[in-house]
Amino acid sequence: MNTLLIIMTIQGCLGAFDTLYHHEFTERLPWKPQAAQELWIHGVRNFFYAVIFFSLGWLSWGGWLSCLFAAMLLGEIGLTLWDFVIEDRTRKLPASERITHTILAINYGIILALLAPEMMRWSALPTGFHVVFHDIWSWVMSIFALGVLAWALFDYSRSKRFKVVESPPVLHLEVPRQRILITGGTGLIGRRLGQALINDGHDITILTRDKAKAAQFSGRVTLIDRLEDLRTVDIIVNLAGESLSDGFWTRAKKQAMYDSRLKLTQALADWIAVAKEKPRHLINASAVGYYGHSEILEFDESSSGGKPDLASDLCRQWENCAGQVASYGVKVSYLRLGLVMALEGGALAQMLFPSEFGIGGPMGHGRQWMSWIHIYDACGLIAHIINARIDGPVNATAPQPLRHKDFIRLLGRTMHRPAILPLPGFALKMGLGEMAETILLRGQKVVPKRALETGYLFRYPTLDLAFSQIFHGLI
Prior knowledge:
The protein contains 16 helices and 15 strands. The chain has helices at 2-26, 36-58, 65-90, 95-123, 136-159, 188-199, 211-214, 251-274, 310-323, 346-356, 375-388, 404-415, 425-432, 434-440, 449-453, 463-471, and strands spanning 59-62, 128-131, 179-183, 203-207, 221-224, 235-238, 281-287, 298-299, 331-337, 339-341, 369-370, 372-374, 392-396, 402-403, 445-446. The longest helix has 29 residues, at 95-123.
């Protein structure tokens, strides 16, 4: 019996890792409307596991009750298979999650093999529940039982909060049926923008290294994995680039950050140079990091910038690379993006895990500025740039930036959670190095002067309005 309880302990630890690391932290399932059914399955399955853990620690199911216990074990298998089907339909699992699931399945098979003789013994007992005690292992099983029961209730309740499914913003370009290339089309903005333009009746081409991931688009779309396959287009929206806020900035990471932007943008410039029919407009992503950092200055598109850092250098090189196509008669716009607010990715998504568990709080001193934009406005501003034929820099930020401590306070209030546990700057620097210094602990106050001057009306000019839309019906 001790061998069985050891294997169950391993199963419990693997399950906790899978739940916390994959479901909560990396995949953020509780914040994806399409994951509602998967969360419901997790809730029911965890309830089964709670009964299994507690029973193995303290009870023998005598007589015909042993058959009921066996049915529950088989029910867990059925739920797991159903879960696999739902996962494959709704998301692409990372390799680490698939490996973890495989180990869990193998381990569960071992548990069933070890349980078989034990359940034969149970069936010979008088019908009823018989109390047993396995020393320390009974208490270990109790801990796991309480943990998975709590998570069963947690997942079940969160599966019910999805009252609305996030949809792409409604965009209307003045010129109908335009041919538009989007690079980075499977990214945070690219997914929403691409689907919105498809819905508006345009011919969309997505340049992607992962065509399977791009299959999420519904409607008429062309997928290519190399520029040589690109036909004539009217507009190029270049959103591709390695994430700056994802992980430690090693030498290889920094190189990838530069290469993913500069090499692709140069390839686009080379393609435009030889194209017989050139696009009329290139909208090239950049970021508010272009301005460097400052706690006191306010930046608009005419500002020279604050203190330089790696992010500002990267943005300037990126914009310079894109700007060369202007010599071919192509209009060039630089979309200097702030922090994009959306549940499925970006800065806000990274804050959801600690905030939901009440351990959110300001990073560092909290005085750093956060210039942000709702994802609908990010897409809407791209459409506005196309319609208004705007060239040059355009700050893609909401009109009201705010300090990080105020941002966190409003997030906590919206989520009905405390947001009072500060994360010291030195701890962030020790854990994440230069990335924390540049991205998390510094900021800039950026205002969308050109967007407002050219008549763009922000749907979500304030953070409370943005959060009302993002979290409406979800909490």
